Amino acid sequence: MAGKTLYDKLWDAHVVQTDAGGTSLLYIDRHLVHEVTSPQAFEGLRMAGRKPWRTSSVLAVPDHNVPTTARAAGITDPVSRVQIETLDQNCAEYGITEFKMNDLRQGIVHVIGPEQGATLPGMTVVCGDSHTSTHGAFGALAFGIGTSEVEHVLATQCLIQKKSKNMLVRVDGKLRPGVTAKDIVLAIIGKMGTAGGTGYTLEFAGEAIRSLSMEGRMSICNMAIEAGARAGVIGVDETTVEYVQGRPYAPTGDNWDLAVASWFDLHSDDDAQFDKTLILNAADLVPQVTWGTSPEMVVGVDGRVPDPAAEADKSKANGMQRALDYMDLKPGTAISDIHVDKVFIGSCTNSRIEDLRAAASAIRGGKVAANIKQALVVPGSGLVKQQAEQEGLDKVFVAAGFEWREPGCSMCLAMNADRLEPGERCASTSNRNFEGRQGQGGRTHLVSPAMAAAAAIAGHFVDVREFG
Amino acid sequence: MEKFTTLQALVVPLDRPNVDTDAIIPKQFLKSIRRSGFGPNLFDEWRYLDHGEPDQDNSGRPLNPDFALNQARYQGARILLGRENFGCGSSREHAVWALEDFGFRVVIAPSFADIFFNNCFKNGVLPIVLDAAKVDALFKAVEATQGYELKIDLVAQTVTTPAGNSWDFEVDAFRKHCLLEGLDDIGLTLQHAEAIRAYEARRRAEAPWLFN
Lengths: 468, 212
Hints:
The structure holds 2 protein chains of 2 kinds. Chain A is of the alpha/beta class. Chain A is built from 15 helices and 19 strands. A 5-stranded parallel beta sheet of chain A has the order 5-4-3-6-7, with helices on one face. By secondary structure, chain B is of the alpha/beta class. Chain B has helices at 21-24, 44-47, 94-102, 114-121, 132-144, 173-181, 185-190, 193-206; strands at residues 6-13, 79-81, 106-109, 126-129, 149-153, 158-160, 166-168. Chain B has a 7-stranded mixed beta sheet. The longest helix of chain B has 14 residues, at 193-206. The chains are: A alpha/beta, B alpha/beta. Chains A and B meet through helix 2, helix 3, helix 5, helix 10 and helix 11 of A and helix 4, helix 7 and helix 8 of B.
């Protein structure tokens, strides 16, 4: 019999029961909750006269709607305020731990879970947010769910699931300097397409993945959903264990030893069978920049905007043309000739300490270019912000002309006041370049933190490998 | 949840691939704490020529005449015809709530994003996968024929065209059962409360740190 993949192991360990049709009840260890996708779930629970099954499994935080300035004054947008107050009330009513807006530990839900050690290897982790795949970096099975499923997990601690297929994404060799985790995952999506992973759990493996920090691994798993996969996983190694040790929710004493012993089995067996495999060579990768309105529309920074006329598939060519019209770009334009209006460094993809360090170091004493209307740095959590300030990174950003903000999702999805105006073009470290994602009519180019910072200084995209 | 058995209804085409949930319901409308009322803002940025905000009166807003949902011939459509990877992106169930509130009970596409696909079943909306050639044929037929209706039969798992062609579609047996009966699946899961407790007890002994 063939060995098991990491996903097989995680799945098997959490199946409560499976019916004859192959539908399983899957037990959920950690349920992360935020203000946008939970109010209707709590309301449903209340209307049915049900109670949460295990409140200690739930950790809540407001992140999507929170302002990133002047927090002491509260939230001025009345609709956003009601949503956040509703989360506060629901957590108080059911005794759920919540890091409120002005708590130092508040931040983007996918930053604070790992930061607190609330995300542990071997867990099932869910949240009403598609970027829950982030937590798979810890050898956890983590995926996004809709609000009905948020209610289901609250009420039963389980989800009704069918098992996905297994896909291996192996990145061999070593990355060249200036090429980061974000570039790896954008290149993977460019190869697979945004539906290439639909129906699969992706396992990221290979030397280039192993050599990444936990921050880098989280950036990779974060964007598994952009390749269509609900979940992405990475096997546990010393890097994982080192990151988890000593965090507030991490096990201690004998439990720590027991836990670590079990975690080292959280990798695919050598003879495990995958349904599909994609292999990339890290040495071939260059910094990536998206040019269109889907994350798969991506090229190297040394490349050019592609020409729909050269695309044989007519439906694909139409999609490319629509994207170019929306982005106001001409085929053949060199990526380095694209000027931007705004720069956003943040989001659950790239707002952790390592991301801020990379961005700060790409500034190299420069100033934000005159054509840049706004350059924002939004740390992923209050603790990331504090650490960055201890390292003096905030001073580097502010001296260069960036705004240093309070933590939250911010301009990744523009639910709060941070957004693009129609026609504005942004170099963004976030995860989605959909039409209107960062503000109606806004144009998003997805890049790594170093590439975003360098674009802010140059005023247009530049190759970080040659910049400075 | 409203039951679904059969539906005969007008079809509206949305001819673009990778329709994402940000497009289906833009972020500003996610601030609502309700489950209903999203229909007027379905595809807001494509449907209207101005910028929409929550709680605004939508009746006087300028409509985009090129967008299929605004065209007279498609008024009253309850079946949405889409292209590959429909519903990609964010997990927001508001996307399905908006489709349902607008009046859609069926979405037909060659492929769907997983989370959206799952969310449909939780809200009495049936997502149907047909192969790309059939979907392509449907696009041509819908555009060529005023008042083009399809008949959907969930019991028989068939899509029937006005010409009488009948195509089978796949649907998971459990999901089909829930849709046909309009069942609350939380209630179904709670029937297995004993099994869940037994799992928890075993797991707590093996891995106590998961229950801190």
